[in-house]
Amino acid sequence: MRVALLTREYPPEVYGGAGVHVEYLARALAGLADVTVHCQGAPRDTAVAHQPWQELRDQVLRVFSADLSMADAVGDADIVHSHTWYAGLAGHLASLRYGIAHVVARIYDPRRAEIYQRLGIPTVATVAWTIEQVTRKLFPGRSVSEWTDPTGQVSLVERALPDSWCGRKLSAIEQQTGARIVAVVRGNQSVLPPAELLGQEGDVLYLAVDRSSGESLNECLGTAQLQAAER
């Protein structure tokens, strides 16, 4: 998977938290994907630098001109991440022009970011919180632990529903794995699943698992993902 991180600042040109934020995000994702950082400003060895059009006098338009250069450079990416509004236009244009998935960092306060998420806006915030949230979006098949009981025996995990489970009863996952589906997030709604609920594309499951059911869950949904990829 090719990931393009779009930002205005990046080391050694750092004048705020955004540059440090992207630096740590790039490090965290490097072991999971082919990551390229696109920044604005002077050329550097650690990123692809884009310069604004010198003919423009307006500072906002100069930023937008660098965004156009960024958008032009990321056509082969599988996903783009725009960091703050400075790179927002670049990611948005790349998403429209090339059909690339787009993750947007809007704010740094995680409490406010959660409100944006409930409104259906793809939002990430703060260094540690962002790394986890963006990783979830890039690799939805991974089990992400939301909570573990004090004994360490039972956890609440998040899993994206594989396409091959669409149209099938979600209760079958419980029967096959021993896990318990606590909630299903569908669009902007979260529901307590009735026994007859059928899976839909884009569903996100929250499941209570112990150690044995966790392994069964990986086998169940992992096999389903593989079968879906092969069709």
What does the model show?
There is one protein chain. With 231 residues, the chain is an alpha/beta fold. The protein folds into 2 domains: 2-138, Glycogen Phosphorylase B (Rossmann fold); 144-230, Regulator of K+ conductance, C-terminal domain (Alpha-Beta Plaits). The protein contains 7 helices and 11 strands. The chain has helices at residues 17-30, 59-73, 88-98, 110-118, 127-138, 171-177, 211-230, and strands spanning 2-6, 34-40, 48-50, 79-83, 101-105, 123-124, 144-148, 154-160, 180-186, 189-191, 204-210. The strands form 2 sheets. Strands 3-2-1-4-5-6 form a 6-stranded parallel β-sheet, sandwiched between helices. A 5-stranded antiparallel β-sheet has the order 7-8-11-9-10. α4 links the parallel β5 and β6 (123-124). α1 packs across α5 and α2 runs parallel beside α3. The longest helix has 20 residues, at 211-230. The two termini are 20 Å apart.
Uncertain segments are: 223-231
Instruction: Name the CATH superfamily classification of the largest domain.
Output: Glycogen Phosphorylase B
Integer-rounded radius of gyration: 20 Å
Name the helicity range.
Answer: 25-40%
- The largest sheet has its strands arranged as 3-2-1-4-5-6
CATH class of the largest domain: Alpha Beta
Q: What characteristic shape results from the CA principal axes?
A: elongated
Number of helices in the DSSP assignment: 7
